[in-house]
Amino acid sequence: MSAIIQSPRSPQTRSRKGGVNWEKWGWLYMRASGVLLLILIFGHLFVNLVLGEGIKGIDFAFVAGKYASPFWQVWDVVMLWLAMIHGSNGMRTIVNDYANNRTVRRILLAAIFVACVVLIVLGTLVVFTFDPCSTLIPADQALSFCPVP
């Protein structure tokens, strides 16, 4: 019995007519989000570590000051969304490559999807609802611009 291996440049036949090629779009997303993540992450590190006082300058007040600006809120949320979807898509690819049992594959893919959605929702809520003057913070630890109750 011999197997015929098609030339790499030969046209591919599709098993189904029409539809969206999700693997192609996932591959393109990984490349585009990877480039954007490099820009966002190195910009984040540059602003936080190089322009400021370094790691010793990052504290609650620093984060509160950053999240007072809509620019940094959007920057961090875009970084969060791209990183979570990028990582989840990578995990999906690994599960599809190595999980042979259909039931196990579906359970793992569902777990990845749920974890991604939960972390994106929680992270987005934290960024946009962050209140540095929360009543949960003791008065002696409140920031200088927060009204004392």
What is the H/E string? HHHH
Low-confidence stretches: none
The fraction of residues in strands falls at: under 5%
Q: At the third CATH level, what is the topology name of the domain at 28-131? A: 3 helical TM bundles of succinate and fumarate reductases
Estimated radius of gyration? 23 Å
The number of helical segments is 4
CATH architecture of the domain at 28-131: Up-down Bundle
Helical coverage, percent range: 55-70%
The tally of strands reads 0
CATH class of the domain at 28-131: Mainly Alpha
Distance between the termini: 84 Å
Function: Membrane-anchoring subunit of succinate dehydrogenase (SDH).
Transmembrane segments: 26-47, 67-86, 107-130
Keywords: Cell inner membrane, Cell membrane, Electron transport, Heme, Iron, Membrane, Metal-binding, Transmembrane, Transmembrane helix, Transport, Tricarboxylic acid cycle
Pfam family, one: Sdh_cyt
Summarize this entry quickly.
It is found in: Cell inner membrane. With 149 residues, this protein is mainly alpha-helical. It contains four helices and no strands.
Task: Note down, in words, how this protein is organized.
The radius of gyration is 23 Å and the shape is elongated. The model has no long low-confidence stretch (mean pLDDT 85). The protein has helices spanning 22-50, 60-67, 70-98, 102-129. It has a domain at 28-131: Fumarate reductase/succinate dehydrogenase, transmembrane subunit (3 helical TM bundles of succinate and fumarate reductases, Up-down Bundle), CATH 1.20.1300.10. With 149 residues, the protein is mainly alpha-helical. The longest helix is centred in the N-terminal third of the chain and has 29 residues, at 22-50. It has 4 helices and no strands. It is found in: Cell inner membrane. The chain crosses the membrane at residues 26-47, 67-86, 107-130.
